[in-house]
Amino acid sequence: MRKTNCPNCGATFRALRPGELRILDALNEKGLRFTDLLRKTGLSPPALSPYLKGLVTEGYLVKDDVLYAQSEAYRADELNHFYAIDGPRAINMEDYG
User: Fold this and answer.
1) d(CA 82, CA 11)
2) pTM of the prediction?
3) Which residue(s) pair with 63 in the sheet?
4) Strands 12-14 and 61-64
5) What is the C-alpha to C-alpha distance for residues 64 and 21, in angstroms, rounded to an integer?
6) Positive/negative CA dihedral, 8, 14, 20, 22
7) Alpha carbon 60 to chain centroid distance?
8) Which pLDDT belongs to residue 12?
9) Whole-number Cα distances in Å, 70 to 1, 10, 28, 59, 66
10) Which of 67, 66, 11, 18 is nearest to 43 (CA)?
11) What is the pLDDT of residues 9-68, one digit of tens each?
12) Which of 34, 56, 85, 95 has the fewest Cβ atoms within 10 Å of its own Cβ atom?
């Protein structure tokens, strides 16, 4: 997996895969159930399930009973110095001032 360094702090991050970015985009506003994520992302159940497990394990998402949501830590990283590469879109550091 390709890794990149934050230009602000030097921290190393792995590149998020396109499916992971679709999940994070879908969860931008509120927590969603697995079936809602299937519909919003267009991913198949066999593709969505391991992505969710990995994103929860890595701390990008939290799961509360049946809802998945972005973790507070992910939101803080995104606003402070996180950016993604190799996805359907890139998060540009200049977008956050």
Assistant:
1) 9
2) 0.70
3) 68
4) unpaired
5) 20
6) positive
7) 6
8) 72
9) 22, 23, 7, 9, 14
10) 18
11) 777 767 778 899 899 889 987 899 999 999 999 999 999 999 999 999 988 899 999 999
12) 95
HSE, side-chain direction, 13 A CA sphere, residue 22: 17
Phi/psi of residue 62, nearest 5 degrees:
-125, 150
Which DSSP string corresponds to 26-66?
Answer: HTSSS-B-HHHHHHHH---HHHHHHHHHHHHHTTSEEEETT
Instruction: Quote the CA–CA distance of 68 and 57 in Å, as a whole number.
Output: 12
| Spans of all domains in the chain | 33-80
CA distances from 80 to 6, 11, 90, 92 (A): 10, 11, 15, 12
Give the strand pairing for 61-64 and 67-70: antiparallel
Q: Any idea which residue has 């998945």 for tokens?
A: 68
Positive or negative torsion for Cα 82, 17, 32, 52: negative
